[in-house]
Amino acid sequence: MSEDELIIIENLKKIYKIKNVEFPALRGINLKIYKGEFLGIAGPSGSGKTTLLDMIGLLDSPTEGKIIIDKKDVTKFDEDKRAIFRRKNIGFVFQSYNLISYLTVLENVELALAAAGYPVSKRKAKAEEILSMIPGMLELKNKKPNELSAGQQQRVAIARALANDPKILIADEPTANLDSKTGEAIVELLRKLNEEKGVTIVMATHDPMMMKYVDRLVYIRDGLIEKEVIQK
């Protein structure tokens, strides 16, 4: 295993079963993701993008195959060990922002810090530090989500995802609910975090405008990798 390989995926398969009918979502994915890489995963709806991200993020288990993250075979972990590993290593950004409506921006980030096991006495200062990394967000710290634009809410979601200082940030269609200008600003922010913080980012997208920001683009169709394009 190369020192630069952070994630190794071997013959990954996922079959969902509904009323004894099998639906193969992934049909044998082989992929290496490198430390500090900004990887894009593209493909039509139903191609397996989200399923692959769920596997990398330990939100679901494969039917067959292996995922090695940071030299650990995470497919062997039980649920408790998976939860601990997620909490210590992985941040998530989804197309729905999943913010808690009755909490302020600062409190939403503090809650994520609590989940990551951060000491109570240091949460507020750490939450402010994280928000200050994202342009324009610290001054909105006392706002509630319904007082923010969609782009601002997604920025809060990104701040929350950074609460555990993740090695890996998984972004599943993070610009799907945004206009193109706001979407580009969000992906530029992810690119900045990737370059300045060294966070490895795996982003699924179907938007051609967003694909130009990634280092490498993996195209998936029908649960298989169709092609890879190195862009940077």
From TrEMBL:
Top-rank taxon: Archaea
A molecular-function term among this protein's GO annotations: transmembrane transporter activity
Listed CDD domains: ABC_MJ0796_LolCDE_FtsE (cd03255)
InterPro entries: AAA+_ATPase (IPR003593), ABC_transporter-like_ATP-bd (IPR003439), ABC_transporter-like_CS (IPR017871), ABC_transpr_LolD-like (IPR015854), MacB-like_ATP-bd (IPR017911), P-loop_NTPase (IPR027417)
Protein keywords: ATP-binding, Nucleotide-binding, Transport
ABC transporter domain segment(s): 7-232
GO cellular component: a single term: plasma membrane
Pfam families associated with the record: ABC_tran
Keyword ATP-binding assigned: yes
Protein name: ABC transporter ATP-binding protein
